[in-house]
Amino acid sequence: EGNLLLAVGGDSAPTQYSPLAFTNEGGRGEDEGRTAGNTNDLRGTILRIRPQADGSYTIPEGNLFEEGTLNTRPEIYVMGNRNPWRLSIDSSTGYLHWGEVGPDAGVDSEEYGPMGYDEFNVAREAGNFGWPYVIGKNLPYNSYDYETGTYGEPYDANAPVNTSPNNTGLKVLPPARPALIAYPYRVSAEWPILGSAARSAVGGPIFRRADFSSAAPRVFPDYFEGKWLITDYVRNWIMVVTMNETRTEVNSIERFLPAEQLIHSQPLDMDFSPNGDLYLVEYGINNQGRISRIEYNSGNRAPIARAGSPKKSGAAPLQLQLSSEGTLDHDGDGLLYNWTIEKNGTQTRQFSQENPEVTFEEPGRYTVELTVKDPKGEEDSENFEIVVGNEPPEVSIDITSGNSSFYFPDSEINYTVSVKDHEDGSLTGGEIAPGEVAVTAEYIPSGMDKEQLVMLQRKGTFNSETILRHINAKTLIAENNCLACHLVEGELVGPAYIDIAQKYIGDPEVYEILTHSILEGSNGKWGSEIAMPPHPMLSPTETKQIIDYILELTSSEITNPQLPTKGEFQTSVREKRGGGGRLASFFPTPYEMGSYVFRASYTDKGSEKVEDLQLTGNDFVLLRYPLLSPESADFISAEGISYTPSTNDPGFIFTGEGGYIGFENIDLTSINEINIGAINRFWHWSHFIGGTVELRLGSAEGKLIGESKTVPPAPKGEKGPFFGEATGKPISIDVSKVDGIHDVYIVVRNAAADKSDALMIMTGIEFKQ
């Protein structure tokens, strides 16, 4: 209809309950009687206006207050909002839909009123949705006396009265409208499918078939007609809401694509495209964000080809059994297999078996491709390269004394490198000289994980010349358009990175200064009036990685020193520079939580028969700081975990019974205890019921080597053992009698828990000597 709708937050300091109290010392920011409860204020509302061609706007009919009504704003369509976002209009009914983020209280309060709820709301017409006087399904807060600073009887949801001295609008407000859906931190009795954890309700689109042309190729089926797709930004789910015809009640809530795991990202926004596809924006930490396109396929689905072999290179003749393992067809159709082998662009052989045996007689490079086709002609292909005439070198680097998983302050690491090559000989036999083997040990201040190193190996960029410590920083700089304003050397729009590094040499506040400039932007520091844009999406870890890279540009240590193939290495720890992120908040440490990467590589001499057949073998050992975050686990149970990938707040929550995480190949040599941050009472999340933490080897049901019970939460209204200064104190499990390398599992149990009860927040796992 040409109207513009705007969601405006309530503009107050975060509080656990209704924000009404305030002080006169600049403290009006906690009184939402001046904003969301004020009929004469645009904050805490959804506005509806009709823009005009000359830049002005008019007021459409049907807003909450008619133009000219004393002490009101006619732009207001909906008032009584705390934090409304992701607005959608139902094209069939014209009704407005949105999500609303509520306050933080985890329990009801006799003094203040109800606990916090997030809401999903539908406005069929203009109205007041109650905040800050009611919440959820019109649960009233206790009235506040601004003269005495005390709380009294509950507000009347049918006629809330705004007595705030900061109120410039009507005193008696329109009746409050209840939320369509309201859910707290704990499991909702009405809708347990919504789970239990932190909350951040996000609205989403309403599906109507009539919104798409008849030629749209992939429109969702009629099953979704009139349904509302909603998300929770931190609980990482998408739900489908079915409502009654008047949109006043919910008939059912079900998961959308329940098999999809959104555990590493946060669904932030979604909408349908004209061709029927659903686009989903997932915000993610550590480069895990993405935009996904979800297509509906009403007919035949194409097969998926997977091609491989046990070896990708070897001496001639090379006999291999090609493998189609992993190839699938979601419809269960029988597939036709076609393998082709090419050398120098010419096809040499073809096979129709699923897993044919092939012998490569002649040296050279071959391309092997598998194509699979279903009965309706849909097909898919995958290929890979085989190198014949040269066996790849076998390189290994082993820690012979010291811990092979973690580094500790001033500890001695003994290592040895071995190299064997079918054609060249071996390092121990003397055919390969030690000087031909590249061995390095590099310290990465911001840390490194195994997946990153394996990915570099796959890309073929994992050699001794690759400087690992700034790979993440360079990627972040490229992805965030920093190169549009800055060069490493030479002035562009902003100063060169090397000039920034030189300016702040020795400045003890460099991390605070540059963090502020990166996250919030800057202007005029270098004599230019051109503003540098802010980058608030960067996490503290990512920001520190960029700063580390910039500051090291003035360092002479730009290469990795070569090490002997056998020797001793002295580790060290560095004082923490910049923020330590969430882990450091709960396990305070004066040190950087970096990583050491030991690398060994050898490039063989190739083949006498064929040119350009040199192959490189490499190996690495990753030594991490002995403090791991739960979200970095190698194994995470499909159920029993509610994971919020937050950078500053705890968000790895165990729910129900038997949730677990596991870490692969952990060396427990010289480890005497494992401290596990397991909080069951934290600020406003006071509904955690606690449980037993088990430490097991091999699997979640493997050998039990230790367990500890968490202290149950304190009674309502009292500070528990993990509150205030004690927040984050870990539980300790003795592992001094266990040695060797194991898969270590942490299992959280509480047999009395319901499936969605929240047991505890896990903050970190510390390995101590």
Question: Can you tell me about this structure?
Answer:
- The model is unreliable at 714-728 (pLDDT under 50).
- This protein has 769 residues and is mostly beta strands.
- α2 crosses α5 and α4 (510-520) crosses α5.
- Strands 35, 37, 38, 40, 43 and 45 form a 6-stranded antiparallel beta sheet that branches. Strands 1, 2, 3, 4 and 8 form a 5-stranded mixed beta sheet that branches. The chain has a 5-stranded mixed beta sheet with strand order 21-27-26-23-24, with no helix packed on it.
- The chain is built from 6 helices and 45 strands.
- A hairpin with a 5-residue loop joins β26 (364-373) and β27 (379-388).
- It starts with a strand and ends with a strand.
The gist of it:
The protein contains six helices and 45 strands.
- Mean pLDDT across all amino acids: 86
Taken from the alpha-carbon principal axes, the silhouette is: globular
The fraction of residues assigned to DSSP E strands is 25-35%
Main sheet specs: 6 strands, antiparallel
Q: Portion of residues in helices?
A: under 10%
Structural class: mainly beta
List segments where confidence is low: pLDDT < 50 over at least 5 consecutive residues.
714-728
- What is the count of DSSP helices, taking H or I runs of 4+ residues? 6
Q: What's the number of extended β-strand segments?
A: 45
Radius of gyration: 31 Å
State the end-to-end distance.
69 Å
Salient structural properties:
769 residues; globular; mainly beta; 6 helices; single chain; five-stranded mixed β-sheet
